[in-house]
Amino acid sequence: MERSPPNIQKLVCESCWRTVFSIKSFHIAWSAKSAPRRSKSAGFSYTTPTWAEMQHSIDSMQCRWCSFVSRMIMDCYFWTAPPPNGRTFQLRIRFSQRSNIADEGSGDAGPYAPSVNVDPITHLYLAVDNRPDFKYCVHTAEGDPAGRCIPQREILLDVDSSTAYDLIRQSIDRCLRHKFCPSPRCTPLPTRVIDCKDNPLRLFVSPQGIEDKYVALSYVWGCKEQPHCTKQQNLDSYTKGIPLDYIPTTVMDALRVTRTLGLRYLWVDAFCIIQDSKDDKAREIKQIRRIFHNAHLTIVAASADTVYDGFLHERRPPEPPATMLPFRCPEGCLRDDATANGPACPPQTLSTNERGASRNTCFHRAD
């Protein structure tokens, strides 16, 4: 007779434990992870208890699977009122786990490595009454043995925490050791970079041929102008120091990330291109593809609508919140896994090899 950890088994009712989360049923659903995406037969299929029975399990046993499925059914049929109490549903469950690997051609900056998501993304697919699948992102907690099967971790809300920076470092290290990623190397610095080593920050005009690691910032200027961007009249003074109150919030956040990761130089177009010089702009814009490609890390401030918004603010918890469910590892042990109730949501910060950008790209996504 199977012995199950009570803290895991109590996540679902007895009916769900005997069906969806039995050893055989869960194995069938998990084994479908490599099946064709549009397969109509892969996975585990079963008939749910009646609607009234599921609601009773939710109320009396706090069954998370019955609750999860009930919400999905309401969304699937666009119902605003519950179905009849005696109604049952045919449900098909399967997992999917795929990596996104696409070769990238060469360009002015030289050959590119393939564009790779190092870790495969795990999804749970649910289909009710042969309707189109609902797709959910699956992740688990750091240190949980289920992490051997599920690479994704719970969503990080504090993106300016030591945990966030540790994850960035680990992801960069994993990319650099991955067979599809190029070997680390120092590359020539762009014409100008911001030197973040000491205060005051200053614009560093790099001698031709000097090599070092640097970070590049990708962001949205927004509708507002940047009155303190580099121009011909302040170029010399900026090489001695840039007043902190001249630097917009998004750029300040990028400076903080650069310093925290132990890097010295940051490239930002507003400060590293002379904005009122047609010749300099024409010359530097031609180099932008090379600048991003050669960067040790590119920060993508995707959560900032303007340069004054910043991107290191704490994120709101996802809505609706993730649902914690049992997970049966292939070797038979039981662990928890969290399934996001909604579209796939990657972590708030991650490193990956992005087309046309640097080998490592740190995305700071919107809430």
From TrEMBL:
InterPro entries: HET
Domain of life: Eukaryota
Record field: compositional bias (Polar residues): 348-361
Domain Heterokaryon incompatibility: 214-317
Protein name: HET-domain-containing protein
Lineage start: Eukaryota, Fungi, Dikarya, Basidiomycota, Agaricomycotina
Annotated region (Disordered), positions in chain: 344-367
One Pfam family hit: HET
